[in-house]
Amino acid sequence: MIGQRPPTVWIDDSHAIVRRGMAACLQQADFVVRGESAVLNPEPVVADLDVLVFEYGGGATLRRAVRLSSGGGTRLVATVRDVTEQSVREMVDAGVCAILPHLTLTADSLITSLRAVVAGNVALPGDMLAKLLVHVTQTSHLGPQGLNPRERSVLRLLADGMDTRGIAEDLRFSERTVKNVVHDVLTKLNCRTRAQAVAVATREGVI
């Protein structure tokens, strides 16, 4: 729940049956489906929208989705038919919070991933994390000061799929403290997203 209301989502996919299937699954899980589109047409209405699920069709589609969601609190979730190292890198670098391969997409994985994203977490399957590692190890590195024990603890819980509230409860921190720690970790690791930070920390062996 977002405050006292159910989370809102817009579903984009080139196939109407896929859109309707995702909508039915999410509605049963108490999501409110605001609308549907194919290749972002008609253009999604993102005002007060929590999640935009869009079909990744290359850089142009990704840039359009990022533009639509910029300046607001809308989180991006991408479905993808052809998973490559380049596509994973592009999506994570652009701030996509979850990547869902069509071949392995199920009702449970869709609902679980969107709930994680709404809670402020990321949802990146292990095989995609491996692809991302190849990229982030070339562009990011630990700062000379490294990570302190508190930062490592928060990163471990992020890697386990926990959201800000769950981390705060587990470590007995305030949610504000957790957010500040995450910010510091992203800065130290030269990462833009939590997914990148987890990938870097995993590769460097610090979690």
Q: Helix count, per DSSP?
A: 9
Average per-residue pLDDT, rounded, comes to 84
Count the domains. Answer: 2
Estimated structural class? alpha/beta
What CATH first level of the largest domain would be assigned? Alpha Beta
Largest sheet: 5 strands, parallel
Binned, the helix content reads 40-55%
Strand order, largest beta sheet: 2-1-3-4-5
Q: What integer value in Å does the Rg equal?
A: 17 Å
Helices and strands, in order, run as EHEEHEHEHHHHHH
CATH topology of the largest domain: Rossmann fold
CATH superfamily of the largest domain, by name, is: Response regulator
Low-confidence runs: none
Report the β-strand fraction as a percent range: 5-15%
Give the name of the CATH architecture of the largest domain.
3-Layer(aba) Sandwich
Query: Would you count the extended β strands for me?
Result: 5
How is this structure best described in words?
The structure is a single chain. α6 crosses α8 (175-189). The protein is 50% helix and 13% strand. The mean pLDDT is 84. By secondary structure, it is α/β, with parallel strands linked by helices. It is globular, with a radius of gyration of 17 Å. It has helices at residues 16-28, 59-69, 85-93, 107-118, 126-139, 149-159, 164-171, 175-189, 194-204; strands at 8-12, 32-37, 51-55, 75-80, 98-101. The chain has 2 domains: 8-125, Rossmann fold, CATH 3.40.50; 140-204, Arc Repressor Mutant, subunit A (Orthogonal Bundle), CATH 1.10.10. α3 (85-93) links the parallel β4 and β5 (98-101). This is Helix-turn-helix transcriptional regulator. GO terms for molecular function: DNA binding.
